[in-house]
Amino acid sequence: MNYKELFTRLYALLTSPKRAWTEITVESPRRDVMATFVYPLIALEGVVVLLSTFVHEGLKREVYQPALMEMLSCCIALFGGFFLASYLLDMLSQKYLGRNADMPLAQLFVGYAMGAVFVADVLVVLFPQFFIFKWVLLFYVCYIVWEGSEVIWGVDEDKRLVFMAIASAAIVFSPVIIRMVFNTLSNLLG
């Protein structure tokens, strides 16, 4: 795994989404977004969640289980959210855009668009007092999706706003829904 390329791509998506999406489209062969971008960021966020819990709570024995559960909750939410959002986006492209099923394209799009979600989560874990920045970055997902919908999907201007709204909602809220379900089941099952 080349972390320099990963952070360069993440930085490009956050600072200049249109240019980043254009670079992604000209890559040949298309990279496996899961192995080169999504999984490393999920792992990195899991480690950050675990370590920040120990920093904020101390290395006490009673902190280990809640810290591991928080890390697991975070990783499962992002992992499941990625696949749920990819599925929803593939369905959206078929029903709304009239395209053929193309799950690899949906995964590529969701994986890179979730970059802002990863950054927002890490910032809030490291600096809980900056919770408002998480919402700013989550709204920025809309802009990343807006630019990507034209470059990656070739969405017509008249369908672009609706596509952006639905795709952004799927990308932002899928991990939240998965996390709520996981936490609820964890509490119920003890």
Q: What does it look like?
A:
- This protein is mainly α.
- Helices cover 84% and strands 0% of the residues.
- The protein has one domain.
- The relative contact order is 0.14.
Which assembly state applies to the chains in this document?
Answer: single chain
What is the SS-derived class? mainly alpha
Largest sheet: none
Helix content: over 70%
Low-confidence parts = none
Mean pLDDT: 92
- Shape descriptor: globular
Any idea how many domains? 1
Radius of gyration: 17 Å
- Rounded to the nearest angstrom, the distance between the terminal CA atoms is 36 Å
The ordered H/E elements are HHHHHHHH
| Number of helical regions | 8
How much of the sequence lies in strands comes to under 5%
What's the total number of strands?
A: 0
SSE topology:
Layout: H1 3-15, H2 17-26, H3 33-57, H4 61-95, H5 103-113, H6 115-126, H7 131-151, H8 157-189
Short description:
The protein is an all-alpha fold and 190 residues long. Helices cover 84% and strands 0% of the residues.
